[in-house]
Each structure stands twice: as C-alpha cells, then as structure tokens.
Write the structure tokens for this entry.
Amino acid sequence: MTPNVTAFFHEGTNTVSYVVAEASGQSCAIIDSVLDYDPKSGRTQTSAADEMIAHVRREGLKVEWILETHAHADHLSAGSYLKSELGGRIGIGTNIVAVQSVFKDIYHLEAEFPVDGSQFDELFVDNARFTLGALEGKVLWTPGHTPACITYLFGDAAFVGDTLFMPDFGTARVDFPGGDASVLYDSIHRILALPDATRLFMCHDYGPNGRDYAWETTVAAQKAENIHVGANRSREEFIGFRTERDSCLSMPELLLPSIQVNIRAGALPDEESNGISYLKIPLNAL
C-alpha cells in the first residue's frame, strides 16, 4: 500500500518533517517535527509546527502517531506541542533510554529525571509493527549515528532519519555519544536491502553544490550513487572515511539545547519558581 506523504522543509535547520497519511482514510502520522528556537534570544516559536497543524486540519486528518527517528542534535522537537493540539501518541526507539542515561550525566539533570523512556508514549523495538488506519507501520532498528536511531516503513515509503542523506551528500556522522561507524554501515545496508523501488525520505538536506533542496530518493539510487556507501564500498573503506571526516566536523549549533528537549519527547524543562524554563549548557563536557 502506498501512503500519501507531505513534506515540510524547515530552512532554519535544514530539517524535513513529514505528514504520512493512508491513501484512502483519515489516519496520519507526523514524523520528525520542528520547534522553532532562536539560540540568540532563547525564544521558542511554533511556526513550523503550526504549518503542519493547518495541513492536518485542512485535509481532515486524524493524528494517530507523532514519531521521532531519534533524539535529534540539530533541532528541537515539537512533539509535545503537536500532541497537545492534535492528540496522538509519541513514539521513538527503545534505545532512547541509552541516550537519556548518557545525557542525564552530561547535563547533570535532577536526580528524579527518569531514564526509562517514560516521557514517550511508545518505545519501539526492532521489527515492531503498528497500525496507521489501514496502513501498517514497521520499525527497523538502524543505529550508528546514535544508539536510538530507527527507520519507519509504511508500504513503499521509508523514513530514515539522519542515517542517510541524498546520494550526493552521503551518510550520517558517528561522533556523538554512542555513535559507531561499523554499526552505521550495517544499518545503512539493512535499508539498502529493501526493494530497489522503495522511496527513501531524508530528515535533512543542505543543497550541496548549489542544487535545489531535495529529500526523496530510492534504494536503487542510493546503492548506485551514494558518495559514501554506493557502488559496493567496503566496510573498512567506509569506517576509515567516516572516522577521518568526523574528526574535522564541528558540533551542530543546536546540539546542547536540542538534546535536553528531545529526550523529554519535545517538552521543555519544568518551569522554575519564577515561572521560567531553563536550558543547561555544560561547559567543556563534549
């Protein structure tokens, strides 16, 4: 079964969010949403999420799921806001607990902060199946970029998060806590084992070499053309390349603000006694 896919590109973070809906019916899922955040002022806005809300309401859709492919390091999730406006259940891979454990220590979060994934409504295990109206969703565990990365498969459409980029941009970095180039290589090839015609939807695009932004490709195109893993590049070649490349990359601008929101399923930290919510910036910790 082929789902309807509507993409929403957030130019501020080069993130692509999706509304995935059954072809004949009202059920839909939102994947990898964005909460607007200005790091200079510390202000949040809901403009990007509101655009998705308007689409859902205009099309008469019912949100069943609000899905995260992983705890993103380059944008804040709008999952909790979307749930408050549209309902639905927030889902992520079960290995989010490993990410929560690492970053609870890095941020020195309050002792009572749970690291059991209970901030989310559903923790998906590998090969989990769930329904979206008449559609069936399937979860593929695809770690390497982070321990919690998963791919969502609906019919002929796979949503790969940061594991892969468009063929001319390559693959995800692996230098975050818990990242692993060898694991990423296996995860990518799990995706590339899907049928050649499977549509692959990226979470980011940066328009390399001045081309227009793009976020949809196929398994066949990735196998033939991906500049990091295409044309049967070996595991050893990939690990060497990925490790060397990542050693030269700077950290994403929004890593420290975003992770502490995203391990809370898109919720901001609790307000303090003055009614203000605060983000923590650990110094010299990463």
Q: What stands out?
A: Residues 144 and 183 are 5 Å apart (CA to CA). DSSP finds seven helices and 14 strands in the chain.
